[in-house]
């Protein structure tokens, strides 16, 4: 009978101590150099060593299972799905840290969205912590979860009532939107409007704040248009009647509709009316144009959300509020003002 491979065998082959092998097996990579980690992993592969995962987890007092809770169905049907990069980043970081993911799909549904109250909250207890994702969150529910001391991180900036401290990893929409405004200014635009619903989610408000700040810093007057109150044709009429030469679109799914409405009025994009999209649409734009704007670091947001959660689970001091820079997209839908 072949003798069972032990940690000592792995350590001897890798030329390290058993303590170092243990650190690698426990995914404590910040305490092991990259070259050493790879050498240990290679030795594990060559020897066929298999640690007892249950014993390891019990020894640490944790399951090494992290939950992923979504407030609406976001499981991607294609790689073009808006949520796919978030999930890909979460998965990659979980794999790097040698922990398993548990996707919660059976939480009670209230008013068309999943809930974390009652049974939904109890199910989270099988995990060490949870990454939350989606739009339909209940702020009071999140505040209660935060008070419970259960480790969780939201993908996207969120503010809670009563000053509750919610850990999140989001995108810096304020700076990204201000940078897009400056692209318009550099092209000579001075009458620039913003198309986006007022108030609402933090991501919308951040975009609006970035637009207003940059416009006022340039000595100009903001002009906001609520797309929930107007049709694309009415928005195009409003832009023409107010002699606007550029529009920033917070809701990118309206981009093609607005471009078509401008065309029906003899306005060419970008020659007569420049447009910019503030982030990728949830559904891909079917267009022959490369849209000016910015890209949201979705995969990195997912990765850092899992990394932050791991730090909170370990009880390490961590920056609980992380805003990541967006990538500018020069595109071809902003041209010199006429």
UniProtKB/TrEMBL annotation:
GO terms for molecular function: DNA-binding transcription factor activity; transcription cis-regulatory region binding. Residues 5-60 form the HTH lacI-type domain. CDD domains: HTH_LacI, PBP1_LacI_sugar_binding-like. It holds the Pfam family Peripla_BP_3. This is LacI family transcriptional regulator. It comes from the Bacteria. Keywords: DNA-binding, Repressor, Transcription, Transcription regulation.
